[in-house]
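Field reference: sequence -> structure
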Amino acid sequence: MDISVPLGKSTDRAVQMGTLAGITLLGGALRVYDLGAKSYWVDELISLCHARAIQDVSSFLMAHCGNAHPPLYFLILKGWLVFGEGEFATRLLSVIFATAAILAAFLLGRELLDPRTGLLTSFLMAVSPFLLQYDREVRMYSLLTLLTLLSFYWFIKALRTGRGVYWAFYTALSAVSLCVHYHALLVLASEWAFFFAGFKAHRHLIRNAALSQIAIAAVGVWWLPALRFQIQHPALFTIGSPDKFPVFTLAWLAKPLYVLYAFSLGQTLLPWNPAAIAGSLLIAVLALIGARRLWQANRQAFLFIGLSLVVSFLMAAWVSDTMPRYLVFLAPLYYFVVARGLLAAPRRDVQAGVLCLFLIPVSLSDSNYYRNREFHILAQADPWRQVSEHIHLNARPMDCVVAIGAAMPLGHYLDHFQGFTLPTYDVEFQKIQPCMDADKTRRLWVVTSDSNLAPVSDQARAWAGERYRLLDEKKFFEDRDAAAKARFFRKNFLRYRIIVSLYGSS
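Structure field:
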């Protein structure tokens, strides 16, 4: 009996699974490393606040803490809090979802294209600076990415085979995704754009398709009350300035290019860095080559990936926002295109060489993330734990605190010191006057941090300076790129991210 062919297939599969296991371990290790080092930032604290606010079915269906997202992730997070409420423990949940997404990308790549493309895409996801940044937050982004990849996978299998079990998996995953983030609607829209683009081939599946959408819609009805409340009260769900980041003059052109740049090299490598310029050009060329190869060899995959990227981005620009983190679930599709470009090289040694060149800027961006350098959005790296420790070590029990744009993270960390409670005020800093007048020995801490509230911060320091004497001032996290970023992004940036000023009676 000739067993050479089956043995060869078995060996290939073992190599694939071994490679995938190594890639997954690499991705997991990069995400777990130093996971608790950074302080929570506002969005993460909103997640924790929302999770704690869920007490019953009614509160599950309500919006909480200025959070404008469906509630399922926060329910999962509430259950996860039994393992701990520190930075490492709470972020680990997102890391688990992110690591599973690396496996899901291989499945989708193998189904849509081929195993080699699936493996390379998984590797690109594992080392991606963009995904690394958002996969380690106490937010729903990694869960949304995982559910999107699995939804795409079962959708493609359902279209190719028509099997009811695949439609059931697709329907369940899409419904769950819709309860995690509103942008799951963009995923559904792109899937059905693909369905109707090839309607002649898919016409016989229209009944299953319609039933799946009815079932998904039935699940979505549960969070409609929260959505309606958020639409009717938008001011309650806007933290800081209504201007979205980044702000460009030619936004219609620059924003999609910036999103692709973020997908490629993350948001911890500034665009004028020589490594960023060379790396973004290389990745752009690979993406163009990959798109061309897809068009030539697999037009169905080209159409599916192209529609998913274009439809989702256009709809996000129309109904929501195109901030990169809100489109994180699309990054794997872009990596499929880049992977095809890498594999287009004629020889394996050339492919390896191009991959090494690709990894130079990617590794630099990853390194910057861990070292808190070149962040485009520095709120994600603000050292609130250190700021709170400084105040705790130097404050007196009767002191008062004004925290301009920083009340939530500062309050969170100050609360960690048992028996230490300071009256804390936010933007309406004038209300602190009764606190200070009640006892002339009291001192005033003014903590400023939000660049969008710079005028209010200046007013607060001027107000305090007129009434009290400056005793001490400490600055945290110097952003040496602030001036250059302000010119490039046309947005205000602070030279020092956090300034803590201490005032006493004259």
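Note: The CA atoms of residues 137 and 414 lie 21 Å apart.
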